[in-house]
Design brief:
alpha+beta, three-stranded antiparallel sheet, 10 helices
C-alpha cells in the first residue's frame, strides 16, 4: 500500500513578533540552492521571444561555494563565464529584447516568435560528496525569427571535495559499451522502459547522461533511442553493483568512499535585495495573511508528492517591502523532488503583511521549516 505524504508548514516563524531592534541577516549556511522560475515575453523590434526558466542554482555546498559548477552552468545556459547568476541571466535576457509588461496594441506575427527554454535541475545530492545536475537549453524559432535554433543537454556531477565538474565521459566508460564489452543483462535493464514494438523498431541508441544516487545505491541513465519513425528519450535507474564495472574511478570514489570532513567557510546568503538590506529580525516581523488559520487554509490546498521521502526541508524566503515572496532558497534539503515541491509551495504563497522597522516597511528574510510526514 502506498503511503500518503502530508505536508506541515511550521507556522511559528510566520507570526508577528515585536522585538524593538533590527538584525541584518548574516546567518552562515552549509547548503543553499536558489530556485528561479519565470515565464517571460520579450520584445525586440518586431520579434518576440518567450522565455521559460526553471533553474536550481547551487550557491553553497558543504560550507563552500561550488565555483566550478557555477561557471559551467552559467557558460552553458547564458554563454557567460561567471559565478553571478543575476548578472548572467540579465545579460542573456537583454539579448532577447525588453520584457513586455503591457497589453500589445496589435496581434504579433506568430512567425516572428522564438521559444527559449532553460532548465538546470538537481538530480541527486550526497552531503559532502557531490551534486548531480541535468541541464537543458533549447531555442525553437519560428520561420521569421532571427534567433538560431539550438538544443543542448548535459548531465554533470560536481565533486564537492575536489571542486570539479565531471561530465558523463568522466564518469561512464563509454568505450566498453561501444565495443560491446558489457553483460547482456545491462542491455535488458537499460531498454526495459521500451515497449516491445519500440525495442524491435530501434535503429540507434545512446546514453546521453548519467548521475549517481548513493542514497538508493543506484546509477541513473538518460537514454536516447531512435526508431524509423521517432526519437524516444527517457531516464532509468540501475543498481550500482550491476554497472560498477562501467563506472570510472572518479565515479566509484564518490559512490564508495566516505566524505572527508570539510573545512567550514562562513558562507552567507546575499544580504541585499534590489539595493535594500535584508533583515532577519525587525520591530514587527512579516505576518502571513490570516495568521495561523490562514496558513492552515493555504496548506490544505498544497498537495505534496505521494509515496516520497519524509522529513524536513528549510526554505529561506525573502519578503519585499510590499510583502511579496521574491527570493527562494532551500538551505536544509531532503531530496531534490521534495526540495522542489517545498520551493513551489512557498512561491505560491499570497502576499504577507510586510515587516516593519521603526514603522517603515523593510525587506526581511525568513526561514520556514516544512515537514513532510507519512500517513
Amino acid at each position: 500500500m502506498k503511503k500518503k505524504v502530508r505536508l506541515l508548514l511550521v507556522a511559528l516563524l510566520l507570526l508577528p513578533v515585536s522585538v524593538w531592534g533590527q538584525t541584518v541577516d548574516h546567518m552562515a549556511q552549509c547548503y543553499s540552492v536558489r530556485y528561479v522560475k519565470e515565464h517571460l515575453l520579450m520584445q525586440s523590434g518586431d520579434d518576440f521571444n518567450v522565455i521559460d526558466t526553471d533553474i536550481e542554482w547551487p550557491e553553497i555546498a558543504n560550507f563552500n561555494k561550488p565555483v566550478a559548477l557555477q561557471y559551467f552552468l552559467s557558460q552553458m545556459m547564458f554563454g557567460y563565464s561567471t559565478t553571478n547568476l543575476d548578472s548572467a541571466y540579465q545579460q542573456f535576457k537583454s539579448g532577447l529584447g525588453s520584457q513586455v509588461t503591457f497589453q500589445l496594441r496589435t496581434l504579433p506575427d506568430d512567425r516572428r516568435f522564438c521559444y527559449v527554454n532553460m532548465s538546470a535541475r538537481l538530480k541527486s545530492y550526497s552531503p559532502g560528496q557531490y551534486l548531480c545536475y541535468s541541464i537543458s537549453c533549447e531555442s525553437v524559432p519560428e520561420s521569421m525569427s532571427p534567433v538560431k535554433a539550438k538544443k543542448d543537454v548535459a548531465y554533470v556531477i560536481y565533486d564537492i571535495a575536489k571542486g570539479r565538474v565531471l561530465t558523463t565521459e568522466k564518469v561512464l566508460n563509454q568505450r566498453l559499451i561501444h565495443e560491446g564489452n558489457v553483460y547482456q543483462s545491462f542491455y535488458v535493464t537499460l531498454f526495459e522502459p521500451l515497449s516491445d514494438d519500440e525495442f524491435n523498431a530501434m535503429a540507434d541508441a545512446s546514453i546521453e547522461g548519467v548521475w549517481l544516487d548513493k542514497a538508493n545505491d543506484s546509477v541513473g541513465f538518460k537514454v536516447s533511442v531512435r526508431t524509423s519513425q521517432r526519437q524516444i528519450d527517457y531516464e532509468t535507474m540501475l543498481p550500482y553493483q550491476n554497472v560498477r564495472y562501467l563506472i570510472t574511478k572518479a565515479g566509484r570514489r564518490l559512490m564508495e568512499k566516505k566524505p572527508k570532513k570539510a573545512v567550514p567557510i562562513l558562507e552567507m546568503l546575499p544580504n541585499k535585495w534590489e539595493g535594500d538590506s535584508i533583515y532577519s529580525l525587525v520591530d514587527q516581523m512579516p505576518q502571513f495573511e490570516g495568521g495561523q488559520e490562514g496558513l492552515k487554509r493555504y496548506q490544505s490546498h498544497v498537495v505534496p508528492p505521494s509515496n516520497s521521502a519524509k522529513g524536513r526541508v528549510v526554505v529561506a524566503l525573502t519578503l519585499s517591502k510590499t510583502g511579496k515572496v521574491k527570493d527562494i532558497r532551500v538551505v536544509s534539503p531532503l531530496t531534490p523532488e521534495i526540495d522542489r515541491h517545498a520551493a513551489e509551495a512557498v512561491r505560491g504563497m499570497p502576499d504577507f503583511q510586510p515587516g516593519l522597522d521603526h514603522g517603515k516597511p523593510v525587506v526581511v528574510r525568513m526561514y520556514l521549516p516544512i515537514n513532510y510526514k507519512s500517513e
